[in-house]
User: Fold this.
Amino acid sequence: MWRRSASFVLDKQRQQPDESRTERLDMSERPETLANPNPNPGISAYYETRAAHHGVVTSDWLAQAQAAVTRDPADLTLEKGLVAPAASSSGSAKAFSVIDEFNRWRKQPDLAEAVAAILALTAVIRTSEATTMMELEIELKKASDSLKSWDTTSISLTAGCDLFMRYVTRTSALEYEDFNAAKSRLIERGEKFGEISRKARRTIAMLSQDFIFDGCTILVHGFSRVVLEVLKTAAQSNKLFRVLCTEGTPDRTGLRLANELAKLDVPVKLLIDSAVAYAMDEIDMVFVGADGVVESGGIINMMGTYQIALVAHGMNKPVYVAAESYKFARLYPLHQKDMAPALRPIDFGVPIPKGVEVETSARDYTPPQYLTLLFTDLGVLTPSVVSDELIQLYL
Amino acid sequence: MPDTQSLVNDFVIKLKRRKVEGSHATARQTAELLRSVISQQRVPYTNQAGALIDAVKAVGEQLVAANPVELAVGNIVRRVLHIIREEDISLATNAIGGLGLSVGSDDEDDAAKDDHPALSAAAVAAAFRSTLRPPSLHALLEGVPDSGAVPHASSSGGDSEGKSKSADKSTRSRKLKHDVIEAINELIQDIDTCHEQIAEQAVEHIHQNEVILTLGRSRTVMEFLCAAKEKKRSFRVFVAEGAPRYQGHVLAKELVARGLQTTVITDSAVFAMISRVNMVIIGAHAIMANGGVIAPVGLNMVALAAQRHAVPFVVVGGSHKLCPLYPHNPEVLLNDLKSPSELLDFGEFSDCMNFSSGNGAPLLHVVNPAFDYVPPNLVSLFITDTGGHNPSYMYRLIADYYSAEDLSLQQRPASGN
Assistant:
């Protein structure tokens, strides 16, 4: 069997020899995330937020989300209990938790997860009582590790933490100053980052205007704030175009995008997810957002992006990705199951017979050869540029 | 400056009438024209770089409009703009460095330090630098323009800077122009020697007893093949004749004169012969930012044939052909329709093209496009004067040669004429 060939699978098998396949994948995270206080292991925290912000909510989903939210306060105190000892071991006991802070920022629908992470880490610096750069770095490292392990499935969270850590440890501007000045500079930069993320969306929207021509038909998948901004800008500059929205089951994020576009008087047509190939011949380009952009230049995005990209590639249609550069992650997935799966509940509307498995993973990996261009705030990039950028930053 | 204006007008007319053939000649003449524009341009006391940029942009806009299909014009204009910006910054940093400030050569250091509003020159330089440097992940957090938290070193530097700047100024203005002209001379030299530099790499790519296929005639390809021959490689060349201009015949003649084993085939025989070919080498009209190529007509067909048989498709071309634009709609925007007389003998076909028959329009139409667009996935390798590159790497060269803010030349209304 092909899965046996990869060594990491062997490791996982050793850990969980008797689990069935899908269960093994989510169970295998547990040993490394024993400190993971994620309240609901069946649902990825990332998707929980997404659903809260963008989802067209189904009744079942609502019930589960509600349950998760009401359970939240209790769990959060539990988290504090778990994180605080780690922090106090570094000598600064305080009633502050990165994860609380992160969750607070995350509630804002306009703020990307990576930005929330950076803001949370900035708050760590502010409350820190460290007196040297090294101490501060260690403290930050701990905080970012606990953030990362809180939701291992979120790529942009990891990417945001890595980016900020890199900035803190590498920035040359700090070498001149005394510690307090350096600290205030770090805080200031971190706080401005929210601004950057909003600006990044504007930049991407401006860059992509050249590619949307009058009379074109655009296929979009799921709900992405960047893609919405792109289409909004195009509509505001009086471009004539049509949008086909996929439905985006199971959380039906496509409906929400269609909703937003209809408000802008853009002609929209809704498709069920399986009608993509049927509709592809009338489409001029595919526009998708991304949860994360990985080192190969491929993207990790909502389930179904891969098959859309495959169909578009097969029919010679360009696939454009709009993603802010802080979503660039240091990952190199070799196949679909190479990442920790982000799970989410799926409501089929009917009871599923016992013994029938349900694929609950929420996203897939689209390899770079099926993507035409990436629109980022760094410019219009070919997929191979992504690895170049990451190497420049992290090497 | 009636002098430059007439020079510009002459060149514009030449471009409009398509009197300048080929991207190499166009690039060279554009660079020479811009050099004389700059040397004649009177620079004001302040903001000389801005004045030069405006002048070059105004001229450049006319030139590009005169022949939008010849992308080399726009490329050279942008290169010159980039040169002006670069020289201005290097002068500005020299001036600051000369004041004994502890400003390192490190970009980030300067950019972070020079935020003080009073430090005009330094601030301009820093702003320029951040635009010159292509945006990167690394600069994402650094590049925030901040008002507070200015380190004390730079504010004290601002005062001393102000005093010595006026004395420095007059020498600076002359120096900037001088440096820019110097750099343009280098650029012209680069354009002249690009064939040789590309040809130097020939032996690395052409091996003994190989069969090379090319279409039409390109001087770069010719010199590339000859360079390999001179280094005692023996190989065979298939030349597709390149209808309707049959430049392939000229190339075949030249190659035979250099003692190369040459075979002429028709364009339609490319697919029949491609299975025997080891490598396709062609010259480009322009190389786009995504790695696509605007090439003489017929080459897309050759590229598809090469892909079908997994034959490497190599594009040679000097860096003046590197265009920072994306081909949004290449077939529509960037093609040139040439005279039908190249295809048909008008005398023989005069009956078919009779305007008095029927409803006044002739039944026979002739379309003679000059270029093809070859998408990046069909190209295996680019060989430029800086070495061999993957199509997806082209963006990197472009980031080296051009400033991001020069990409569109048409933004401001023409002020020069």
In short: The interface with chain A takes residues 106, 108-109, 112-113, 134-138, 140-142, 144, 146, 148-149, 151, 153, 289-291, 326, 328-329, 376, 390, 392-393, 395-396, 404 of chain B (CB under 8 Å). The first strand of chain B starts at residue 211 and ends at 215. Strands of chain B lie at 211-215, 236-240, 261-265, 279-283, 286-287, 293-296, 313-316, 371-374, 381-384, 387-389.
